[in-house]
From TrEMBL:
It comes from the Bacteria. This is Aminotransferase class I/II-fold pyridoxal phosphate-dependent enzyme. One of its GO terms (cellular component) is cytoplasm. It comes from Rhizobium leguminosarum. Belongs to the trans-sulfuration enzymes family.
C-alpha cells in the first residue's frame, strides 16, 4: 500500500523495493519546494478515505480541488495581502469570473469602475447580462454617483489604477461607502501587487491578481489568484471553483513561487525605470499626455506605496503610431506585461477603436495612445530606442 509506483506494472521484477518508497516532501532540506505533479491522492483504508471525505481528517483528494504546491502559492499570496485564505486559478480571468459568480445571482447588480480590464468589461456586459445580472459603470471620482449606484447593488468592482487609462480610485473611501450599503468590494490588484498596495488594510473585501503579470514575472505562465476572508474563499470553493474547473497546475504554481522570490527586487527596478522613462517622455516634444499614476494629484495615490512599470503615453498628432512601433528595435510589440521584456501595445490595435470600446475614447484614450510595459532592461537602452523611433515616426 505504500508504493507510489508498482514495479510489476512496468514489467520490472528485479528492481530494489526501496526505489519505490514515496519521498517525504520535507526531506533533504531542499531550498526550492517540491512539485506535487499528481492528479489524485490515495488512502490506506476504507476508513481513512471515509474520514477525509467526511471532513473528519484533512487530506488531499484530487488536484481539481486542492494540491499542495498550489496551496503553497495560494497561502503565500494570502499572507502578503493580509488575507485569511486564497484560491488559485488557471488565469486571472478565471479568478475574476469565479469570484463574481460566487457572489451574484439573477436580478443582482454590479457596480464597476468605468474602464476596467477589457475582458472583465465583456464578462459583465455579455455573460453576466445573459444570466440576468445588471451592471452600472461609474466614474470613481464622483462619489455621489458611486453612492447612488451602490444602493441596492451586490458588488463594487475596482482596479486601482485601471490598466489602460491609469485612472486612480480612493479605495478606502469607496470601500467604506460600499460597506455602509452592504455591498462587497472586489479589487483587481495586479498592477500594484501586494508589495505596492494592500487593499484589505483599506477596507476592501476581496483581492484578485492576474498572476500572469508581476507575481509570475517571467512571461511564462498564465494564472490567477483571489484572496480574502476564510468565508469569502469558502464561498468560492462551494459555489464556483470546483465546477468552473479552471484549476492551476502544480508546475505553474511552482513557477509562480519561483517568480515571487524576486518580486521585491523586480518591482523596485520596474518602478525606477518606469519613473525615469515616464519623466523623460513627459518632457519630449513628440509626446502629449503621459498616463502614469505618479503624475496624478489624486487621493487614490495614498494607498500606493510604489509605482509599477506599466503606464501609457499619447503620441502627438504628427507622430505616426504604426511607424513609431515599427521603428522600435529593442522594445517589442505584445500584449500582457509584468515580465522582463519591455512591450508596447497601441490602443488603436488593442481596443479596436471605434468598433468595440468607444467608451475608452470618451474617457480620454485616443488613437494616439500607446500602452508601455517597462521591463527589466537597462533603462538607457530603452530610452535610446524610444528616441530614435519617435524621430523616425515624425510625419
Ligand atoms: C491580464 C489582466 C487580467 C487577466 O488576467 P489573465 O491571466 O490574462 O486572465 C486581469 N486584470 C488585469 C489588470 C490584467 O492586466
Amino acid at each position: 500500500m505504500n508504493q507510489s509506483i508498482n514495479p510489476h506494472d512496468l514489467g520490472a521484477h528485479a528492481v530494489a523495493d526501496d526505489l519505490f518508497t514515496p519521498v517525504d516532501p520535507a526531506a533533504f532540506n531542499a531550498v526550492s519546494p517540491p512539485i506535487f505533479q499528481t492528479s489524485l491522492f490515495t488512502y490506506d483504508s476504507y476508513e481513512a478515505m471515509e474520514d477525509v471525505f467526511a471532513g473528519r481528517t484533512r487530506n488531499y483528494i484530487y488536484s481539481r480541488g486542492d494540491n499542495p504546491t498550489v496551496r503553497e502559492f495560494e497561502l503565500l499570496v494570502a499572507r502578503l495581502e493580509g488575507a485569511e485564505d486564497g484560491r488559485a486559478f488557471s488565469s486571472g480571468t478565471a479568478a475574476i469570473t469565479s469570484t463574481i459568480l460566487s457572489l451574484v445571482e439573477a436580478g443582482d447588480r454590479v457596480v464597476a469602475v468605468r474602464h476596467l480590464y477589457n475582458d472583465v468589461y465583456r464578462l459583465l456586459v455579455k455573460l453576466l447580462a445573459r444570466l440576468g445580472v445588471a451592471v452600472d459603470f461609474v466614474d470613481p471620482a464622483d462619489h455621489d454617483e458611486v453612492r447612488k449606484a451602490l444602493s441596492g447593488a451586490k458588488l463594487l468592482y475596482l482596479e486601482n489604477p485601471t490598466s489602460f487609462v491609469f485612472e486612480l480610485q480612493d479605495i478606502a473611501a469607496l470601500s467604506a461607502m460600499a460597506k455602509e450599503a452592504g455591498v462587497t468590494t472586489i479589487i483587481d490588484n495586479s498592477w500594484a501587487t501586494p508589495l505596492f498596495q494592500k487593499p484589505i488594510q483599506h477596507g476592501v473585501d476581496i483581492v484578485i491578481h492576474a498572476a500572469s503579470k508581476y507575481l509570475g514575472g517571467h512571461s511564462d505562465t498564465v494564472a490567477g489568484v483571489v484572496v480574502g476572508s476564510k468565508e469569502a474563499i469558502a464561498r468560492i470553493n462551494a459555489t464556483s471553483y470546483p465546477y468552473v474547473g479552471a484549476k492551476l497546475s502544480p508546475f505553474e504554481a511552482w513557477l509562480l513561487l519561483r517568480g515571487m522570490r524576486t518580486l521585491r527586487v523586480r518591482l523596485k527596478e520596474h518602478e525606477r525605470s518606469g519613473l525615469l522613462l515616464a519623466g523623460r517622455l513627459k518632457e519630449h516634444s513628440a509626446i502629449g499626455r503621459v498616463r502614469h499614476p505618479a503624475f496624478q494629484e489624486h487621493p487614490g495615490r495614498a494607498t500606493l506605496t510604489g509605482y509599477a512599470g506599466l503606464f501609457a503615453f499619447d503620441l502627438n498628432p504628427d507622430i505616426d503610431v504604426a511607424r513609431f512601433v515599427n521603428s522600435l528595435r529593442d522594445i517589442r510589440l505584445g500584449v500582457s506585461w509584468g515580465g522582463p521584456e519591455t512591450l508596447v501595445v497601441p490602443a488603436k490595435v488593442a481596443l479596436q477603436i471605434p468598433d468595440r470600446m468607444t467608451s475608452f475614447i470618451r474617457f480620454g484614450v485616443s488613437e494616439q495612445t500607446v500602452r508601455f510595459a517597462v521591463g527589466l532592461e537597462e533603462p538607457e537602452l530603452l530610452w535610446s530606442d524610444l528616441q530614435q523611433a519617435l524621430h523616425a515616426a515624425k510625419r
